[in-house]
Design brief:
Layout: E1 6-18, E2 24-32, E3 35-41, E4 50-57, H1 65-73, E5 79-85, E6 98-99, E7 109-115, E8 120-122, H2 124-128, E9 166-168, E10 172-184, E11 189-193, E12 203-208
């Protein structure tokens, strides 16, 4: 699926702002771009249209030799992070073009992908929300242990997917359908409503949302003829108040 817009950035942190009516909006600030087009995929050569974006300039010693050779071949400076995006306007972009935060505008809906915070080795209570064992009548020092894993003789094994203790966090997480509240191209800043995954300074990918907004089909759409449903009630205190 092709997306309209995309950019790479870093999570700065969370704060809050106020709208015109004085209501508080919890927001996350993202340092978005500038990103350089480092490679262009075409339907004739690769079989699809896309662009590879690069973000965060570094010295050559901080990236691998294959990556350095790839960037030198295209005449691009050394960039630490590379990511491919299938954009609708990929055919219009060329190697060396720069994308800034102003590719987005206030009111846009975006999906933000990041790497969740690491919590180290965690038990089942913290990692999966498992229940403790009863704390009375000789429960012993095992109240937060995993407990029984299954029957013994049959099947004589643990089924795949059984919850247990292990490494928690450091997973790729995508939060969908967030609102862009403010855009500042001079500061390379995107202000997005709500929380996004990852720690401060974590790498994030911001792209147009994959969600499709429902289309309203007139004023009468969604009104039921069933008086038991809330949408059919004239008096919400009386379910049978609707008259035909």
């Amino acid at each position: 699926m092709q997306m309209q817009k995309a950019i790479i950035g870093k999570k700065v942190g969370m704060t809050q702002i106020f709208d015109e009516s004085g209501k508080v909006i919890p927001v996350t600030v993202i340092e978005a771009g500038p990103c350089v087009v480092t490679q262009k995929m075409t339907a004739e050569k690769e079989g699809y249209e896309a662009v590879q974006l690069g973000y965060e300039e570094v010295s050559e010693k901080h990236i691998s030799k294959p990556e350095a050779g790839h960037l030198k071949k295209n005449g691009i400076g050394m960039l630490k992070h590379l990511k491919e995006f299938k954009l609708e306007n990929a055919a219009e972009l060329n190697v060396g073009d720069v994308l800034k935060a102003d590719v987005f505008a206030a009111g846009d809906k975006v999906d933000v992908t990041g790497t969740s915070k690491g919590h180290g080795y965690a038990g089942v209570v913290k990692r999966h929300g498992a229940q403790r064992t009863p704390t009375s009548h000789g429960g012993g020092p095992v109240h937060r242990h995993a407990g029984s894993m299954g029957s013994g003789t049959d099947p004589s094994r643990i089924f795949k997917g059984k919850i247990g203790a292990g490494h928690m966090g450091v997973d790729q997480v995508t939060v969908q359908n967030l609102d862009v509240v403010q855009v500042d191209p001079e500061l390379n800043m995107l202000v997005i409503r709500g929380a996004i995954p990852g720690p401060k300074g974590g790498l994030v990918y911001v792209k147009s949302t994959a969600k499709v907004a429902p289309v309203k089909k007139g004023e009468g759409a969604g009104i039921s003829l069933n008086p038991q449903k809330a949408s059919a009630r004239v008096n919400p205190q009386k379910a049978s108040a609707r008259t035909k």
